[in-house]
Amino acid sequence: MEAIMTKYSNFDDMGRAFNERRVDTETRQTYEGSFIEASEMAKLSIVGEAEKLEMPDPDQAAAAVEQMLSTMFDVFRDTRMEEFAADLAWGFVNSFHMVAKRIEGREDDAAKKLGDLVRSYDPSEIYAVELEETQLLCQTLEGCAEAMRCMRDHAGEVYRIETGRPFSTVRGSRVSSKLTASMIDGADYLAARAAKKREEHNPTGPVVAFSGGMEWHDHEQLFERLDQIKRRIPSMVLMTTAMNKGADAIAAAWASSRDVKLVRMMLERRHGNKAGFLRNDRIASLRPVEAVVCEGSGVQIDFARKMRTAGVPLHVFRRNEQAPMQPARSRRA
């Protein structure tokens, strides 16, 4: 099949074409809710001056992400290099993730400084200016991180549609949340930020437990079942056994695409061969309301047994029930 590539002379044309063909209401709202300017001024470093800078246009940003990922697949499609397109595209998506993490780190540093300033109040004008500038720095970096996460999640969805496989990071957490545009004082800003961080890293809500084997490719059946569970339990928190490939990675990708809080229950390797089984005990102790298990190793057998013993409704998937693995496919006719 011949690849069809569309050329645009500028981002406005690209954005209009993107809107006509691809952006549904939910995607547009996600971009508009993520590319928010808390202030008309922006400050990106402690030493830099505040500047009057706008956020990128949300529609143009969406178009750029779509075009960048799609073009990579178009160029390689039906050539001897087609199999490498997915690897390159994964690298693009992961780059968004890594840059977002770096921005979050800079925001954390700025927030620490803001906390120090709030705790050491000084009525001088110099103090007031420094406090205001540090708060602006925090808000600017928070907005940039939110926009970067939005683009990462969109790029991950393009990757999933093109390859038939969900995108998942190798390590680390993925947190997406919506910003508010309100201007608040330094102490209130820190309190709100701390509350948001607590919810991100210690989310509240009914726990749905998930464990699966490392060799798993059929994401559609898992997406469908998790969607069914989410319809019954809209405020669910998904807790996985934190494998970086296979069924757990698919579940993590589902959580990201559905804006569901994800908790990755890591192994405590100091326990050696017992680590996986002790992790199952920890998950069971949290009283999940439902559980999903995909056939894997003895750890998954133990997981299923402990969920049943605890009276947790259990959804079981077996390897031989997967749909055949499909090659990378095109979204275009």
From TrEMBL:
Name of the protein in its database record: DUF2493 domain-containing protein
Superkingdom of source: Bacteria
Database matches in InterPro entries: YAcAr
All residue ranges annotated as the YspA cpYpsA-related SLOG domain in the record: 206-270
Keywords: Plasmid
Taxonomy of the source species: Bacteria, Pseudomonadati, Pseudomonadota, Alphaproteobacteria, Sphingomonadales
One Pfam short name: YAcAr
